[in-house]
Amino acid sequence: MKLRYPDYYRRFSCIASECEDTCCKGWGISIDRNTLKRYRKLGRHKILGSQMKKGIDYRNRRFRLEKGYCAFLNEDKLCSICLEMGEGMMCRTCRRYPRHIEVYGTVREASLSLSCPEAARLILNRQDETVYLEKMVHSEKEKQKEEQEKNPEYLETLLSLRDSMFRLLRNQKIPIKVRLSMILALAHDGGRRLKEREFSRAAELAERYEAPETAAWFSRRLETFGSRDFQRRILIGEYLDMTMQMDELSEGWKQMAARCRQVSLVDFPDYQLVNLMEYYLYVYYPGAFYDGDGYTKARFAVLSLLMTVQLASWFVQEKKLEPEKALVQAAYRYSRQTEHSDGNLELAEQFIKRSRSCRLEQMLTCVMADN
Q1: At 103, which helix (H) or strand (E)?
Q2: How many CB atoms lie within 10 A of CB 250?
Q3: In degrees to the nearest 10, what's the CA dihedral of 332, 335, 341, 343?
Q4: Nearest CA-CA partner of 178 in 232, 231, 214
Q5: CA 300/CA 243 separation, integer angstroms
Q6: Could you tell me how many helices (H) and strands (E) the chain has, helices first?
Q7: Is the dihedral of CA 216, 218, 220, 222 positive or negative?
């Protein structure tokens, strides 16, 4: 099995109490069975026993929350389990976060989650192109999975289309709004070919999109979209309304979503927008391996970018943050609201599939319209 990860993945280091937020707030963190067994043994400890009984919900295998915070978070925003017993006694989720791995057939992809402020800075503030590193992971279990893999050509084509989207996104000769629009269109057209299992035609399509003359053609076709700011504001309002129906996992999200809908957009550095969109495509687009719907995954990536930029513009205008810092702040707040809840992700996906506001023309309007 092949393991793929971005070059910045191994550079992440938790800044602990120096972080402006904490991952020990708001989330009911699950405890893996092996760690829970060790905690049960500590429950008989003369000193630690009472703390373990009070801070752990053994029936539901979760840490309890006290006033919204993990019961083991001390006054210095540090984990008392880690301090007293070492990192090895932390549960699997706490040891790994914000690292995450998804499996797509014979490929595993590792990522850092934007919901961590330090990871968000690491991802968004780099000015070099992201390089994806690969290595082979061998085990008998993984070998059996590879032998059972029934859809290798689909996966190969899906990831090849994503590579094409990455190259379009990084092409600085094309205006950033046109790049995003071309990615949407490629996901739309490529999705149909994937569903029909026309893999060679999908490859030909990607080549046409990357041809130099295609960007000029798109720019001409999209000229009229620039004057649609009124429609854009309505559509953005509908997208924000959708996020307000989610369970609130990012503190104050509904209040922020209500306030930021009417702000004018701020210009953010292209490199940050490229990094952000590339992250969303990297994390979400391959999910089509399981449901065959790459177009919805790509639309969710674009919608996530639009929501992040809208919130970041509010941070600039109302909170007086510098644009670069505002986008990082908005990215991790949006990620906390969406990335770690299957229910919230499902709500967003169903909205994209069913809502007229997420059709291709409407989303192109949101991307291209000027203030």
Answers
A1: strand 99-104
A2: 22
A3: 140
A4: 214
A5: 12
A6: 18, 8
A7: negative
Percent helix / strand / coil, the chain, rounded to 5: 65, 10, 30
Neighbours of 75 (CB within 10 A): 7
Q: Which of 76, 93, 95, 77 is nearest to 85 (CA)?
A: 95
Residue whose pair of structure tokens reads 């032998």 in the numeric block: 147
Tens digit of each residue's pLDDT (9 = 90 or more) over 153-192: 999 999 999 999 999 999 999 999 999 999 999 999 999 9
Residue 26 region by backbone torsions, left for phi larger than 0, else alpha for psi between -120 and 50, else beta: left
User: Please, where are the H alpha helices in 171-293?
Assistant: 176-195, 199-210, 212-221, 229-244, 253-259, 270-284, 288-291
What tokens does 86 get?
């070492």
Interacting residues of 159 by C-beta distance below 8 A, sequence separation 6+: 104, 107, 286
Q: How far apart are CA 77 and CA 18, in angstroms?
A: 9
Give the burial string for 287-323 (b: 16+ CB within 10 Å, else e): bbbeeebbbbbbbbbbbbbbbbbbbbbbbbeeeebeb
The CA distance from 138 to 16, in Å, is: 34
3-state secondary structure of 198: coil
Domain positions in the chain: 2-12+97-148, 24-94, 152-368
* DSSP type of residue 341: -
Across 9-90, the runs of DSSP E, i.e. the strands, are 56-57, 62-63, 65-66, 69-70
CA distance 345 to 326: 24
Which residues have C-beta within 8 Å of that of residue 226, sequence separation ≥ 6? 368, 369, 370
Which one, of 347, 257, 264, 332, lies nearest residue 300 by Cα? 347
The predicted-structure confidence for 23-50, as pLDDT tens digits, reads as follows 888 877 889 999 998 888 876 665 566 7
User: Amino acid identity, residue 222?
Assistant: L
> Whole-structure pTM over 0.85, yes or no?
yes
Q: Which residues contact 225 (CB under 8 A, 6 or more apart)?
A: 364, 365, 367, 368, 369
